[in-house]
Specification:
By secondary structure, this protein is an alpha/beta fold. The protein has helices spanning 12-23, 45-48, 62-66, 78-90, 104-113, 127-143, 165-177, 182-185, 237-250, 260-263; strands at residues 2-7, 27-33, 71-74, 94-97, 118-121, 148-155, 186-187, 202-208, 214-222, 225-233, 256-258.
């Protein structure tokens, strides 16, 4: 069995991952971490997630939560992830990162740390979203510069970063397929008299409302027609299942930085 520890165990995503670990035939929960002021400290992680007792109690102590783990699944904040990742690398534990909102400097640091650790990092662990990324690449490659590219993403009101990491990844994939530098062509807001749309623009628009789990649509539009590719998540279970799949997959891999395209075998 693969022993898995998680961060943010009392949160919505944490509970979904606990249940996904329980459902997977090759994984067992080995540790559950929460912040020091969490009212859930000391509770059984499985019971808190709405399942059977696991014997794993939620702790605020990293060493205690990670001690028996082979791999750690982390959905937290960029700052917390960087601290936890450093501990994991030190202790030779694999690490799955679902956190989004990293700075370029933090991304570079993660890449450097991966020289001494097995890391899977993806802004979205959903199998469907990662298939969408491949479809976006293929579509953009065929359609080229004749089609305008626009991305719309929608999430719940509590999401802290914008645009979503998934929307940015979609934009990166599309930009690479048409040989554009996303930093130069991305447009995140339009207001007022903005003039005619530049052909090279890639628009990324954000919606925050209610309890939307996660919707992403990419539009390829040209005079006379448009193509829309959409993924809608109705439950966090799809992200949790993907994260556990990544945790199992990475265990027998050499040190390095991987993503869900690697996990799912979608890379050419």
């Amino acid at each position: 069995m693969i022993h898995v520890a998680i961060t943010g165990a009392a949160g919505r995503m944490g509970k979904a991952i606990i249940n996904a670990i329980d459902r997977h035939p090759r994984t067992t929960l080995a540790g559950a971490l929460e912040r020091e002021d969490s009212p859930s400290l000391g509770r059984d992680a499985g019971e808190l997630a709405g399942g059977e007792k696991t014997g794993v109690r939620i702790s605020s102590e990293t060493d205690k939560a990670f001690k028996k783990a082979d791999v750690i699944i982390d959905f937290s904040t960029p700052e917390a992830t960087m601290n936890l990742l450093a501990d994991a690398v030190r202790d030779n534990k694999a690490f799955v990162i679902g956190t989004t909102g990293f700075s370029l400097h933090q991304r570079d640091e993660i890449k450097e740390l991966s020289k001494g650790a097995r890391i899977v990092m993806a802004p979205n662990m959903s199998i469907g979203v990662n298939l969408l990324l491949k479809l976006v690449h293929d579509a953009a490659s065929v359609l080229g510069n004749e089609y305008d590219i626009e991305i719309i993403e929608a999430h719940h009101r509590h999401k802290k970063d914008a645009p979503s990491g998934t929307a940015l990844k979609i934009a990166e994939v599309a930009a690479a397929a048409v040989n554009r530098d996303l930093e130069k062509v991305a447009v995140y807001e339009r207001k007022g008299i903005i003039g005619e749309r530049r052909p090279e623009e890639i628009g990324i628009q954000t919606i925050r409302a209610g309890d939307i789990v996660g919707d992403h649509t990419i539009i390829f539009a040209a005079p006379g027609e448009r193509i829309e590719l959409t993924h809608k998540a109705s439950s966090r279970d799809t992200f949790a299942a993907g994260a556990v799949k990544a945790a199992v997959w990475v265990m027998d891999k050499p040190n390095g930085l991987y993503d869900m395209q690697d996990v799912l075998g979608l890379k050419a």
